[in-house]
Write a structure and sequence with these properties.
By secondary structure, this protein is of the alpha/beta class. Helix content is 51%, strand content 12%. The protein has helices at residues 4-10, 34-44, 66-80, 97-107, 119-133, 146-149, 156-162, 164-168, 183-186, 189-195, 207-221, 231-241, 246-263, 272-292, 296-308, 313-323, 328-340, and strands at 56-60, 84-90, 136-142, 172-178, 198-202, 311-312, 344-348, 360-364. It binds adenosine-5'-triphosphate and magnesium ion (MG). Residues 66-67, 142 line the site of magnesium ion.
Amino acid sequence: MANIFRQIDESGGIFKDERVLQPEHLPEELPHREAQKKDIALALRGAMHGMRPENVIIVGRPGTGKTVTVRVIFKELGEASNRVVPIYINCWEFSTRHAVLGKIATALGEILPRRGIAADEIFERIAEVMRKEKKVAVVALDEIDRLFATRQGEEKVLYDLLRAGENYGVNFGIVGITNSEDFMVKVEGRIRSSLAQREVEFRQYTPQQLKDILGERARLAFQHGALSEEVVPLCAAYGAKNGGDARLAIAMLWKAGKIAEKEGGEKVKVASKHCKAAFASAETAVRNERLAGLGETERRILEILRERGEVHSGELYSLLAKEFDVTDRTVRNYIDRLESLELISAEARERGKDAKGNSRVLKLSG
Ligand SMILES: Nc1ncnc2c1ncn2[C@@H]1O[C@H](COP(=O)(O)OP(=O)(O)OP(=O)(O)O)[C@@H](O)[C@H]1O
Ligand SMILES: [Mg+2]
């Protein structure tokens, strides 16, 4: 019997290089982000000459290419200059002042003792190496809003970096990344103006832009001829419909390929039916995630609607009141929440002579 792995590999199959569809992949080209890339690079350019670069804030919805663009820029910046140390930090992972400084120190080649040292001391060491080696550090703080989220003052690390010039004579550049539009509004005025010396907006991708991005990935990922023509536009449209999100569109393309691959045979092509299956399973995943976040009463509401089809809101209240400690108001809140999660639909009903105000007809959606 032939070795199954060789068989699979030699059959050609669907994928040429599946890895380019995975989140870690760093693409060589960034279609439709050339202008933003240049804008950010211009802000950082001074670092190559030992100067303090302009700080940048990047704002944009999920999946609009913020992280990938900065990672590409940092790679090129590191290649272009020995003097600049680009340091990428995700603040979900490194969410305290201590953790961020620790990460910067390590990137500069400092070995921190295991016993742990205070943040101030870490900062002293950072400043010392940078001075000695005449380095400029450019620090990307991805998901920068996390530093403010704990309300423990972790954002103090921004002052450390912003004031390092006056206090220690060393230069940092900061590239803050956020997908929260109101983040900048909430940040204190002084920090805001120092951080946002340049603000770069990443807009949602249009269907055509997603088509270009996907087309490039598809060329690298799939065997020649393994993709029917309609697949890239379908996945692009799906991503565009869901927030102009390239991550989602790429994930769907990958998933459609996996579904087609499972069908086996060399001649299988990824076709629109595979895309549809991929979209449906993504929707189930989102739905399950939403369901997992629900409380007992909300789950009971869904059960009641499943059993009875349509239920009048007043009737729902009486049913729930038998089992739970609810008021009119809390039931209304539950209904609103389930409706906003698109798990149920609630339609206002004509007010008949015995119907109360605000009455609605409820049913499961989809
Ligand atoms: N212009 C582009 N060209 C090629 N690939 C892109 C482009 N924009 C985004 N991508 C790809 O789409 C995916 C999502 O991009 P990225 O992670 O940069 O989004 P993001 O804006 O940081 O989103 P979030 O706010 O959720 O962190 C990645 O796999 C990335 O490689
Ligand atoms: Mg990101």
